[in-house]
Specification:
The strands form two sheets. Strands 3, 4, 5, 6, 7 and 8 form a six-stranded mixed β-sheet that branches. The chain folds into two domains: about 80 residues, no CATH class; about 130 residues, no CATH class. A hairpin with a 4-residue loop joins strand 6 and strand 7. The chain has about 220 residues and is an alpha+beta fold. Helix 2 runs parallel beside helix 5.
Length: about 220
């Protein structure tokens, strides 16, 4: 397809097929690629999705080991890898824990082990399959003398995979991921508009100051 967006597909009157949705994601990615490095994107370690008493904490706090599962040369994928991920932002309309596919778990002694399966898109336009292995156990609550169920991230596996595998791995449809990419674009536009307003306000102040300086100099 030569189109840089999905308008040619969406203009149809018939119902969209799964094949159409895969094509729409490909077109949206093609449109985004040249802008991904201009966007203010969070890191993998910033994802705030792990239970911590009555709150959550991010993937970075427990300092987990990050392991690359792919073939070939070692990769630089890490907790500092920036990209687009399933949302844990309030503005996206859903909480983080509803967007991450969580697989049951198993008891290991007094600890319960579980995994989260996440999709990601790097700033280089590469799709990621991310598996977060965490344990849950009761720990003392330092302020109230009681115990609470707490999750600790132990290991994170990452791998670059084709987009269809991303959907299968994370249990997300192409439409859900297409929608998430759109949310990021709209958020980026809001951020850019805010920056423009700030810069424009500064520019106007500078212009007024310079005009006053010029006026004072002319009066001498």
């Amino acid at each position: 397809m030569n189109q840089k967006n999905g308008l040619s597909i969406l203009a149809r009157q018939n119902e969209l097929t799964e094949k159409d949705w895969y094509a729409l994601v490909d077109l949206r990615l093609e449109m985004l690629k040249k802008h991904l490095r201009d966007m203010t994107l969070k890191t993998l370690g910033d994802l705030d999705m792990i239970h911590d008493y009555s709150h959550t904490h991010n993937l970075r706090r427990d300092k987990p080991e990050v392991i690359y599962r792919g073939q070939g040369e070692p990769h630089d994928l890490s907790l500092d890898t920036r990209g687009i991920f399933p949302s844990d932002d309030n503005w996206a309309g859903v909480s983080g824990n509803t967007e991450y596919h969580r697989e049951g778990g198993r008891d290991i002694g007094d600890v319960f082990a579980t995994t989260y399966k996440i999709w990601g898109l790097t700033r280089d336009g590469e799709w990621l399959a991310i598996e977060v292995y965490a344990t849950r156990a009761y720990e003392p609550y330092k302020y109230e003398g009681r115990t609470e169920l707490v999750e600790r991230v132990k290991t994170i596996w990452v791998e670059e995979v084709p987009f269809p595998m991303v959907c299968q791995f994370s249990k997300r449809t192409p439409q859900e991921i297409w929608t998430r990419l759109g949310e990021v674009v709209k958020k980026w536009a809001e951020h850019r508009e805010h920056l423009f307003d700030q810069a424009n306000g500064l520019a106007k102040t500078v212009q007024v100051e310079e005009s006053l300086v010029k006026l004072l100099q002319e009066r001498r």
